[in-house]
Amino acid sequence: MPPPPPPPIQSLPDELLEEIFFRLPPNEPACLVRASVANKRWLGILSCHAFRGRYPKFHGSPPMLGFLYSWPLEFLPRKAPSPRFISTMKFGQDIPDNRGGNYKYPVWDCRHGRVLLRQNWAPTHLVVWDPMTGRQRKLKVPTSMGYADGATALFCAASGCDHRACHAGPFQVVFLGLDMTDDDNCVAHARVSSPVTGDWSKSCSDVEWSDMCSSLQLAPDALIDSMPSILVENALHFMLTHDEDDSVEILKYDLSSNCLSLIDAPLSGIVISSSTILMAMEDGSWGLRMWTQ
């Protein structure tokens, strides 16, 4: 007489499955993808708001999937250029229009899960790229802000967001430009876009820009450093360099008041621009990192 069939295996409760899924490594996102397509029940657990909120808290700081960099225009490699996105694990994405060594869109900023790309030289539009999904959105540059010397930055536009998974939500872009007046004075202007929704199907012409803020007069030799800006206390901070003495200053754009202001760098006259990086500190302030040999 054959032995009786084994009793059916009882499925694990959702609470235990969550504890198992919590231990899937965040530096291997394919594990979560494979688990989510196993069945509808697992997909429901992995996609629910509670799990998505607890998973990053369980693992702490998110892993670095890779890093982005841009070559200065005058130093573009002629042969075998490296990709603009360097992956540090089994995750890879191609920056839009950069396949085959096409450097039409260098990286200008990266914040809150999005990357801001801008055309070289006289830009006519910007590209906001989501590296997690590969989606992109083109934004027209304001007609009065077509400066060759300028900077752009982007940030999450969702109020009260913890920025753990907001790459598909609304965002805003700031365009900062320097202009020379007829009497050889340098002035800075800034404009910010209206909140851009996560509807990636809309065209770039749907974005509206604020009125230009009051101009701020700068030294004639002022230039905006190519380093990305930092966001501290609802204000973007850009580093300015000076050709004459290689010193630096901080150009602050307050998002609440739509105003520009200038901040003297510590140790004015000693800070050297080529060895200085503007950084956001853990206590919510900003600082300068200086490299010496």
UniProtKB/TrEMBL annotation:
Residue ranges of domain F-box in the record: 9-43
Top-level taxon of the source organism: Eukaryota
Entries under Pfam families matching the protein: F-box (PF00646)
Identification of the protein by name: F-box domain-containing protein
